Amino acid sequence: MLARSQFRYFSCLITRLLLLPRSVQCLWCIRARLVRFISCVCNSSNTFDCAQVIFDRLHQTAFQGSSLARTILGSVDNIKSISRNDILDYISTHYTGPRVVVAGAGAVEHEQLVGLADKAFGALPDTPASGKKVAVPPATWVGSDIRVRDDSLPQAHVAVAFETGGWTDGHAVPVMVMQQLLGQWDRTDGSGANVSAGMCRELAEGNFVHSAMTFNTSYKDTGLFGVYFVAEPNTVFNATAVAMHNLARLATDVTDLEVERAKQQLKTAMVMQLDGSTAVCEDIGRQMLTYGRRMTPAEIYARIDAVDVDAVQRAGMALIHDQEVAAAGIGNVHEMPDYNFLRRRTFFMRN
Fold first, then answer.
1. Which residue in 208, 225, 256, 265 has a CA-CA distance of 20 to 30 Å to 154?
2. Nearest alpha-carbon partner for 278 in 8, 7, 3
């Protein structure tokens, strides 16, 4: 599975067939056969998904001049130009011991998995064999916007975001609560406009959007928090105004009831995400790479319970209030407000 900061391989097997040794060996073999996947990546790069493209564009404008600004797949020409030596050089540079986690979940014997992982991956060097160092330049946030106007598309896709501090930032958990507080909505849902999240209810009652979602994307030392919505061309302005108002009020006008509801929804969402061995396995691997350990559900719940209105407003004040905003629009975006409109609405003017 491709991602900007991690690359994940999965293997699911039936316990009674005792295929765990072969499964671990297959994960090792995949490492040596990445060349065969170039044609698959080319096919994926040729598909057009507005939801994926909008976030590629958002990264492109928010992290200008850094590696996070690049798309995950790249252009077809670049993909086809990759040679076998390029892939082998990448593997020898990036696939080192400290950067690899072998995780298992479900009916797995820990000692057996450790032994198999050591046999298959134990020879990985601690440093790149070529002597190269993996450069991780800082990702600089740039307040900006990008618009790809295409009036042939029936709707406008718009995303606005603010920079966060990444996985280990002190505001990480409050930002997760903020994501649930703003919520998500789709007009195909059976609830209609009867939703608890104030922003989504306002968007639904005004018939401003087809769908809206709050996103929170985290990386090692940075991230994006914001709102993505799909709207009719003549409601983009109103939808943007509602989204910016609700983002800005996180720094000043959050209630105890909203925070408590969001905390309970966050707990439920985190448990529901771990609904199978594949999801649990991915969670273990991600946390090991990110934190160096796996936090138990009890610890995560305790961190969520510690969030209150003050914590949310502190996070909102640090990340949103009078801060640079990044925005991206694709489709029929002729009514999308300009950057000055967005920047001005990152704070309230009050007597």
1. 225
2. 8
